[in-house]
Amino acid sequence: MLLFCAAMHGAVARAFSSPAGCTACAALDGMRFRASRHPLPGMPRNRSTAKGKWMKAAMLPVALVCSVLCLSVRPALAATDIQFWHSMAGPLGEQLSEITGRFNRSQTQYRVMPVLKGPADDAAAAALAARPGQAPHIVQVLDIGTAAMMSAKNGIKPLAQVMADAGEPFNAAGFLPALSSYYADSRGRMLALPFNSSVPMFYYNRDAFRKAGLDPDKPPLTWPEVKDAAIKLLDAGATPCGFTIAWQSWYLLESMSAWHNEAFATRDNGFGGTDAKLVFSNQLVIRHISFLSSWLKSELFSYAGRRDEAEAKFVSGECGMLGTSSAAYANITRSANFEFGVAQAPYYDDFKGAPFNSIVGGSSLWVMAGKKPAEYAGVAKFFSFLTQPGLLAEWHQQTGYLPLTVAAYELSRKQGFYARNPGADTAMQGMSRKHGALVKGVRLGNFPQLRKIFDEELEAVWAGKKAPKEALDTAVTRGNDLLRQFAKTNKFPGTK
């Protein structure tokens, strides 16, 4: 009988690998009742016998196990699933999974299910193109996809509305102003939740600076100073390459324009409507691209690729200086075998008022339309969890992304993070400078395709196939063709 009891307990445990677990319990409970009336073959049929009483006692633990397991299973079966499409692979994806896991364990009503969907622009396009009922609840979208999401009309549900309908507290004013304004519509309502946001930064090899006779506590502030430092690095044999850059379109064109309060496009850089036109082929940008192209032959400047390939050149010690995102801080900290410094992006000091505020890059979380109220309530609850100061401070400190809210920044400061990691707050300083009219960012339609055009034309300059002005003029012309196509069928809500 001991073997029988053990087998019954095992059967109960196995039953809970399927949703029919509680049904199995009911059957086993009925079996207990029948066993007390109809013993197994060879046992007396007299219910008053000791063996009959033992049989009832033997079945009692089975019923108790069933009851406990049923109580633990029912809440999980009742959880509302929230589909979350994202584009974070590797360590960042692992951290995101850990965050969603913590939310899921913190309550039993909702279950967020993160799904890696490839590049963020592809995930956004797939979400917008999905058939009714097949789109996710939440999708991560690059900043360059903001215009497309805003123009989706009935394809999205504004963040402010999601939070209000669910009765979840939400303070848009608590976010960093550059973020809340970028993701707001013409009425000031936040449409999406900033998530992994960053600004352009300048990194330099302090060890190489010392070897070249440069002061590691005085990084170059202007572009002519960057050139002078690159010459000294190469002359001293400190590094074989002076300077390299990642995300060239964002860093050299869009951010460069905002850093000097120069227009990148008409209509307030696209914030005023979808009929904006590119105008960045101007004195500032032509001068800058000409400046960099003149460095190529001597290796003062080395081009590595369109995305973050340049970061490998820096952490390997090949290039002594790097222009890239503030989000690279965590990876550089892990990978570099030398002491490095962090500074704000260089500028031209002969432009009046420069430098101005940095513009924000990165991704945000958008909520798709067509879901049930209970599901939107789960999204709102998850967003409230994500925006806790403690969690945002942790995300900021572990990844290098911006802290997103003033409260998360202050908490990081009080925890001593910036004191222990000199330069980690430089990105925040870059967002606390002068607020020019053109520093909110760039919001244009077909932006992923525009970036490809910009990259192609810049690469033609680096390869010596085109002069800087010719390439930039061509980029503007090709880009405006795409913008006209977008404007024919799209319009931002609340704009004329």
Description of the structure:
The chain is of the alpha/beta class and 496 residues long. It has three domains: 2-76; 79-197 and 361-419, Periplasmic binding protein-like II (D-Maltodextrin-Binding Protein, domain 2, 3-Layer(aba) Sandwich), CATH 3.40.190; 200-357 and 445-489, Periplasmic binding protein-like II (D-Maltodextrin-Binding Protein, domain 2, 3-Layer(aba) Sandwich), CATH 3.40.190. Helix content is 50%, strand content 12%. It is built from 22 helices and ten strands. The chain has helices at residues 2-15, 21-37, 50-78, 90-106, 120-129, 146-150, 159-166, 177-182, 206-211, 223-235, 248-259, 266-269, 283-293, 310-315, 329-335, 373-386, 389-399, 406-414, 417-420, 426-430, 447-462, 468-489, and strands at 80-86, 110-116, 138-142, 193-198, 200-205, 241-245, 301-303, 319-325, 340-344, 361-367. The strands form two sheets. The protein has a five-stranded mixed β-sheet. A five-stranded mixed β-sheet has the order 7-6-8-5-9. Helix 4 (90-106) links the parallel strand 1 and strand 2. Helix 1 (2-15) packs parallel to helix 3 (50-78), helix 2 (21-37) runs antiparallel to helix 3 and helix 11 crosses helix 13 (283-293). The model is unreliable at 1-76 (pLDDT under 50).
